[in-house]
Amino acid sequence: MAKEVRTRFAPSPTGDLHVGNIRTALFDWAYARHTGGKLIFRIEDTDRERVTDEYIQRAVDTMKWLGLRWDEGPEVGGPYGPYLQSERLEIYTHWANEFLKSGFAYNCYCTTEELEARREEQREKNLPPGYDGRCRELSVDEINAFQGAGRKPVIRMRMPEGETRFTDLIRGEVVFEHKFVPDFVLMRADGSPLYTLAVAVDDVLMKVTHILRGEDLLSSTPRQIRVYQAMGVAAADYPEFAHLPFVMGSDNTKLSKRNGEVSIAWYREEGFLPEAICNYLALLGWSPGDDRENISMTELVELFTVERVNSSPARFDMKKLEAINGDKIRALPLADFLERSIPFLKSAGVISGTPSEIELVKKALPIIQERIVKLTEVVPMLAFLFREDVVFEGEGESKISDEASQSVLKRAIEVLEQIDEWRHEGIDGALRGALIEEMGLKPRVAFSAVRIAITGSHISPPLFESMELLGKERSLKRLRKAIR
RNA sequence: GGCCCCGUCGUCUAGUGGCCUAGGACUCUGGCUUCUCAAGCCAGCUACGAGGGUUCGAAUCCCUUCGGGGCUGCCA
Q1: Among all strands, which nt has the closest C1' to A447 (CA)?
Q2: Is the CB of A260 less than 7 A from some atom of nucleic acid strand B?
Q3: Of all nucleotides in the shown strands, which has a C1' nearest the CA of A154?
């Protein structure tokens, strides 16, 4: 029987999870689900200068919001925990010491300043950069001298002669000659572990079988493999690697605030649907091989394979995300649409959440569903229904103060007052009869004045439905108020 | 500089030697429809980075070149 697939998503929460992180998480998740395996969620917080508890919590929340459930990790635990690296420090210390004993690693007493100076020299002489191995074979006297001088050593991994060769699931065979892979630090002088140590130790201990991660980590792979070797892992048991291409900004530089928003929390606040984000991101760097653009999480799980992931970087396109978001909103069942819209209306102060307000929102949503692209847009679309008086947008009020508009409004009031059953069909008929047929106006001109008087804007949901929802009294009140 | 990765419309992609005078989607432009805005429908623009090979035949294979990116930390 084939080994159960175990993937892991292991962010270092030095900020909010961003688009690139989530795309990685999505693929890790999809692959685990596709194979019936497990997704491990591990927090890489070895850099305590930069990682904060708040960001860790927000990462957990973001994953949940997106619907990317993990099988082992924060909140759910698991057999190979803890899943926060800051809680696993003794494990790393143990292994670093083992490597020291077995000779895979050695104590290095070089100071930061010395290393910096030597790097500078290497640059000038155009030599390959990296640690020169100075402390590899220190004598007892030299060690005593350093210790006597109060120097605290880092633990450094010894890279042997030769090369590391591995097959990346996305890129094929990759070879790194060790002369370009300098000895690297495992433990800081203060005894805290570095990513290079922790990541490899944890992947082995947590029995990870597939590492899907960003391509920035491609060149650190030989170092990780060296740690596996030092831990005594057989080559056949190394995890498989798949280095995902980057997600770039619109200007083809690293994704940042300037060229496309990065933080997933921002997308949430902006009214993007998690399923739209996942749909968009799934198709960024991967494709099912056919023409489908609309893909559900279920289909993603069904179709996802690492082999179909592209090897070239992708540009992030907000317009396309918005298009997909609009599609997903249009496809929402009313109850679902309602539930997701309410928080936006509440936080904007449009409604407080009373049953009658909710009832009105529910009636109004169908007429705006195909007009919005983001959930935040329900606020400007629907606000007019909940305000006592109309609030004119821009130069709206002046646009209906001219003589022609005024006569339209006066006539509209006259015919509307006669309506007993206040429904959009009747409103439509009355207005059309009076303004179009009787007064001979063009519909777009005639209804524009009424629209502005009712909603405050020349852009609004369909006019007659809007008036029906507003009610006869309030509609007439607004029309009368618009008369000079 | 060195090492590594990458290179099809503006963007995401399909394409694994003939089905490609390169398909789809988003964007953009024009039109239809229409009470505004949308949605919908129709049409259009635009791509195999370049140069050499291999082959009857190349987006697909090989080489060179150019371009982009990553790494080169007691960050991850």
Answers
A1: B35
A2: no
A3: B74
CB A472 within 8 A of CB A419: yes
> Beta carbon of A121 within 7 Å of strand B?
no
Q: Is A254 a catalytic residue?
A: no
Q: How far apart are CA A53 and CA A51, in angstroms?
A: 7
**Cα–Cα dist A286/A308, whole Å:** 6
One-character DSSP codes across A324-389:
HHHHHHHTS-HHHHHHHHHHHHHHTTS----HHHHHHHHHHHHHHGGG-SSGGGHHHHHHHHHSSS
Residue A440 has a pLDDT of 85
Q: Which of A64, A152, A254, A257 is catalytic?
A: A257
pLDDT of A15 reads: 85
| Cα separation, A341 vs A188, whole angstroms | 50
Strand B contacts in A 437-466 (CB under 7 A): 443-444, 447-448, 451, 458-465
Mean per-residue pLDDT pooled into runs of 10, chain A (484 residues): 87 90 96 97 89 92 96 96 94 97 94 86 76 86 89 94 92 90 94 95 97 94 97 95 89 63 88 96 92 92 94 92 96 96 96 94 96 96 88 69 85 90 92 89 88 91 95 92 83
Tokens of A367: 């007429």
List the A311 CA – B55 C1' distance (angstroms).
Answer: 28
C-beta separation of A439 from A408 below 8 A: yes
Chain B bases closer than 7 angstroms to a protein Cβ:
1-8, 10-15, 23-28, 34-40, 68-76
A50 Cβ contacts chain B strand, under 7 Å: yes
Judge residue A118's burial from the number of C-beta atoms within 10 Å of its C-beta, 0-12 exposed, 13-18 middle, 19 or more buried.
middle
Closest nucleotide over all strands to A112 (CA to C1'): B74
What local confidence, expressed as pLDDT, does residue A260 receive?
A: 56
**Statement: the CB of A254 is under 7 Å from strand B:** yes
pLDDT of residue A282: 95
Residue A275, SS3? Answer: helix
Element (H, E) at A25: helix A19-35
A203 token code pair: 């992947």
Question: Distances from the Cα of A471 to the Cαs of A93, A264, A385, A400, A430, in angstroms?
Answer: 72, 40, 9, 21, 15
Q: What is the pLDDT of residue A257?
A: 58
Burial class (CB in 10 A: 0-12, 13-18, 19+), A92: buried
> Which pLDDT value is given to residue A395?
64
What is residue A111's three-state secondary structure? coil
